[in-house]
Amino acid sequence: MIDNYLKKNNFLELSPKAVFFDMDGVLFDSMPNHSLAWVKAMNESGLPFTREEAYLSEGQPGTDTVNHVFSKTHGRESTQEERTAIYTLKGNYFDKMSEPQPMPYSLEILKKLKERGYQLFVVTGSGHPTLIRKIQTYFPEIFESENIITAFDVKRGKPHPDPYLKALNKAGIEPWEAVVVENAPLGVKSSSTAKIYTIGVNTGPIDKNILSENGADIVLDSVQELYEKWDTLGF
After folding, report:
1. pTM
2. Domain 31-95: assigned CATH number
3. Contact 190, 158 (CB under 8 A)
4. Most exposed of 78, 88, 164, 185 (fewest Cβ within 10 Å)?
């Protein structure tokens, strides 16, 4: 897997100094709530949308998701007011649901990597304030506040490479000195376009091959498997 990555990107070595984690579906088991909130908000706004589509569009800024579905339905771009109204409605539904809990073994893998001296970052397409605050609550003393990159930190979100390029810049490292952990197809496309070795963790209902097709260098079935197999991945 690593040899394929090096050949694909014309790199000589993979020597990780940092690990970049997506948030929803990797650190938090929040995607079931997100997908249901999306379906309710979209359908209430007259836009056809399914829970599977929510998983497939995960990772990109929420307003981009709204605009994509709106354009497909109405044949025109949504206005900023329309995008904001639907995304706000989605957020209201999400806030009324039970609080998402950390993904099993997420804290364990973070502690292991921090003890080994890796720089740790969160790179999320979310701008939802409650989940971002929960990072520090559920994972205390793991992430420096400046190492949490959200939708507000870049002009172009996932699947563009900009969020992960921002992380590389903040960490002061090159692409071959980082590893990404992602569960979303658009997030995988973002990190692979940034030429970072990408571990897909298939924590949702989509076919794991979709993660490979979007650029994941290896696909695992859970964060627990990531924790248990980290020492066998060749870093």
Report:
1. 0.91
2. 1.10.150.240
3. yes
4. 88
